[in-house]
Fold Metallo-beta-lactamase domain-containing protein.
Amino acid sequence: MHSPNTEPTVHSIHEPVTGTWQYVIADPSTKGAVIVDSVLDYDKEDGIVGSGSADRLLEIIASNNYQIWYILETHAHADHLSASRYLQNVLASQQPNEPKVCIGHRILQVQETFGKMYSIPPAELENAFDCLLQDHDELTLGNLVIGVIHLPGHTPDHVGYIIGTNVFTGDSIFNPDVGSARCDFSGGSANELFQSTQKLLNLPLHFRLYTGHDYPPSDRQCSLTTVESKALPFATVEKQRKENKHVRSGTVETDFVTWRNERDQNLQLPRLFHASIRTNIRGGRLPKTSEDDFKIVNVPEGTIRIV
């Protein structure tokens, strides 16, 4: 799944409004790079779409002379709009090859469920992504290998990406003092999430588990002065095994499942749920016009591909 002697350069960019970690991961020898879980800014009340968070990624890419090969999604996010198509559009004009937008192949199941729920025309979902990844697929990135690992539970389509000794886990596991993600969305499963965390916790102790979100508790002690608001991008497998408040070593699956299900019953939908799902199952494309609970008034002209 990975080349043990080749490690990537990892740029971690925290988006504080939705608590999302965005990543640019590069092969230092060839400057080939990928983007994982990008964010397109969205003001629900005003209906304004912005590219500020994604532009931070573009600044990193330009300053390091990276060539983006793939724009990777871990799953169909329910709390932020993906900037994948914005980034693809901009990068296609700046480099020889247009990067491919990729996601796990079980996105087809998620598209079917939410496409019916939101009455989205099937044509808007067909071939919405450039690449559907199978379990255990490997993508080449210069001298690096990107391994695809299925990590269901939060959503059925959820995958992670193993690059060297780094795993980009999306919402399958959070930092130790945050714990685990909800499982109450359609197709979610607390049992499957527990099994996914065990896949990750059975990796070598020194592997870094990069999380998709961080919501730092007020009492978190953080010595990294460059990290915004005490948000941390990763914890090692060893630290997760010892300290994860929900799935540390010794946690019994039935206890976790009972607790997780009870907790999820009292959670409200994410604030941007309807806008996020509708955009993200379309492969990061926005609908032509406003829809129920998805107000669109202003979009950066010439950058977002409208279906």
